[in-house]
Amino acid sequence: MTSGPTAFEADAVRALAGRWLSCLGDDDFVCSPVGLWLALAAVASGARGRTAEELRGLLGVDGEAAGAAVTDVGRRLAGTGGVVSATGVWSRVPVLDAFRRGLPGVGFGVLPGAPAWFELPDEVFGATDDMSLGEIPAVAQDELDDWVREATGGRIAGLPLGLDGSEDLVLVNALALKASWLTAFPAHLTRDEPFTDGCGDTRPVPTMRQRIPAVWVWSVDGVTVVELPCDGDGAARVRFALGPEGDGPAEVLPAAWAGPTAREGLVADSADLLLPRFTLRTRTDVHDHLPALGVRRALSRHGADFSGLSPAGLFVSKVLQEALVEVAEEGVEAAVVTQVTMTRSAAPARREVVERIAFDRPFGVVVLDASGELPLFAGWCRSAPGGAGSGAP
Predict the structure, then answer these.
(1) Which CATH superfamily is domain 7-178+280-344 in?
(2) 3-state SS of the chain: helix, strand, coil percent to 5?
(3) Is the dihedral angle over the CA atoms 363, 367, 370, 374 positive or is it negative?
(4) Does pTM top 0.85 for this prediction?
(5) What are the tens digits of pLDDT across the range 309-320?
């Protein structure tokens, strides 16, 4: 079985997650730190100069090291049971062969429409590498949507943002998870319990319940963390985080990936867990968050340098992510698609004690890889979960 991520890779993804949380607000959301890291690191493998420096400040890698890290993390994710990951690049401009070789696990295709490299100087045309006119397929919007649906097991219907013809290169990373709990919640015990949302309003919501071992529970700086093991070898780790009243996701969610030295065990023999059945689905415009994360030049029409990717003078024009997490009695399902669009620029024995843990106010959910170190998904449930789920695309 594939081992966990290196300490550097795990630290880099967690660092991005911690910084990104401050941009996401405290309303309902779900995001994928590792999905965003993979997509941006793939792009960063073709960045040069100050553009590369900025991306390295956020991702911890750039250039050839970024390509190697993307390949390594993708390989290690494949070692987590129930997780499927894929990355594809579609382009209408030349893509350098060195960029492709640096991302051996990434598929490459051609965007629909007239090849934009016809407009480039003759000396640049050679950079199209192996492409010939007879090999240019008519890749349409529905074909990319089909790729997304297949990569996510149908959980996400298509690209977070449809193609409008302005794209010169689109990089898409997809990640999907389906896992059953090691111990399912008895369905007959699910019943309505009060949930107080972030506005202070209380209403009944469908709430699952089961008694869990004390070792599945710990606290980090006042945040209660519950890990529900999934069935199977090398399974993903799903953790729920409940903070003090009034704390938001930026304060609560990082407790879910805090290391063992930061944890305090539960002073009880077991715990009665009450957890709402819920669905979170959100679409996030990450492009608007990147300047606050220190990435500006990559977004600049005149300042971006992706000369290691293409001679066409590209910059990052759009970054969107659509993510979904569903938690029910039998298990958890999650999926995410991260889309990066690039456009050309002009550049001892005793009586048993049972703790009651009720997730009856805003709480977080984090899905990690089998090592428990890479945050695959991070979500915040602020509103009262409904029977059919909460959150909206």
Answers:
(1) Antithrombin, subunit I, domain 2 (3.30.497.10)
(2) 30, 35, 40
(3) negative
(4) yes
(5) 999 999 999 999
